[in-house]
Amino acid sequence: MASVGKQLKSDNADFRVGHRERLRQKFLAGQIADYELFELLLSYAIPRRDVRPLSRQLLKRYGSIYDVLTASVDSLVENPGIRENTAVFFKVIHQIMLKGYQCKLADKPIFHNMDGISDYCKLQMAGKTVEEFRVLYLDQELRLLADDLHSVGTIDWAAVYTREILKRALDLNARSVLLLHNHLIPQTSFSTEDIEITTEVRDVLAVAGIELFDHFLVSGDILYSARNMHLLD
C-alpha cells in the first residue's frame, strides 16, 4: 500500500509539473486564456500544490484577476488555501502595477494620458475597505512629483487637512494639486461635504499661486471628475 501511495503522489507531481509547463508554453505563445493565466501566476506562489481548484474558487468569488490582485490581505486570507505569503505575493504585484503607472506619470504631463491617470487612480483605490484621501502633487508641467496618502478614515468619511496640503505643496514646489478619494458604495458621486472641501482646498491653494487641477472620486469602477462636473467653476 505504501508503494501504491508513493506512486500516486509521484504521478500527481508529474502531472502538475507537466500541466504547468504546458501553461507556460501557452503563455509564451500568447495563446493562454485568462483563467489559465491566473492559474499559472498562482502556481508560482504555491508551487507544490495543484492550484486549479483554488484558482477557480478565487475567480468565482472575486470575479476577475484584477479583483483578486487588488483585494485586501484580510479578504484574501479568508479563502481556504490562501495563506499570508500568497496574499502578500498578490499585493506585491498590485504595488508593481502602481509603481509602473507612477513612473509614466512622472515622465510626462498627466493630461497627455488621461486614461492612464484614470486607471492609476482606480488601481490605487481598488480593494479599499475604508475611505482614503490622497493628494497628488504636480510640477509646473503637470508631471507627478508625489502621491501622498493624506488620511485614512472610516467606511464613509476621511479627514482633509487643508493647511497640510498647502504646506506639502510648498515644500515640493508643486504648481498643481490633484485630490483623490474613494466612496465604498459603488456609483455614488460627490457629496455636499466633498464639494465644500474641494472649494476650500482650491481657494487656499490659489492664495499661494497653486492650481487645484482636479478632484477625482473613485466609486466602484467609475471615476468622477470635479472639473468635468463643473464643480471647480
List keywords for this structure.
single chain; 233 residues; alpha+beta; 5-stranded mixed sheet; 5 strands
Please give a structural write-up.
A hairpin with a 2-residue loop joins strand 4 (211-219) and strand 5. The termini are far apart. The mean pLDDT is 92. The longest helix is centred in the first third of the chain and has 27 residues, at 2-28. By secondary structure, the chain is of the alpha+beta class. Strands 2-1-3-4-5 form a five-stranded mixed β-sheet, sandwiched between helices. It has helices spanning 2-28, 34-45, 52-62, 65-70, 73-76, 84-107, 114-125, 162-172, 192-207; strands at residues 132-138, 144-152, 176-183, 211-219, 222-225. The chain is built from nine helices and five strands. Helix 1 (2-28) crosses helix 2 (34-45) and helix 2 crosses helix 3.
SSE topology:
Layout (H helix, E strand, L loop, with lengths): L1 H27 L5 H12 L6 H11 L2 H6 L2 H4 L7 H24 L6 H12 L6 E7 L5 E9 L9 H11 L3 E8 L8 H16 L3 E9 L2 E4 L8
Parallel strand pairs: 3-4
Antiparallel strand pairs: 1-2, 1-3, 4-5
Helix pairs in contact: 1-2, 2-3, 6-7, 8-9
The chain-level mean pLDDT equals 92
Content-based structural category: alpha+beta
List the helices and strands in order: HHHHHHHEEHEHEE
Determine the N-to-C terminus distance. Answer: 79 Å
Q: Level of helix content?
A: 40-55%
- Give a count of the beta strands, DSSP E runs of length 2 or more: 5
Measured on Cα atoms, how large is the radius of gyration? 22 Å
Strand content: 15-25%
Q: Tally the helices: what do you get? A: 9
